[in-house]
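Typical record was shown:
=====
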Amino acid sequence: MSHPPTNGTPEQPLKVGVIGLGWAGQQHLDAYSRAPGVELIALAGLEQELRGELQEQHGIPHAFA
């Protein structure tokens, strides 16, 4: 089965959720928010205040404890 050539960007975005709000999670959030073809759709972490800040900062529609 052959696939048609692409320009390197998928037709639909890669939907991503990040679990964890520590240093590594925040690095992933920053990288995903800058990556073309990626849509941040969910965030999970126990720190309620930080979770809300990151959700707002990155425009993430869903957040979970």
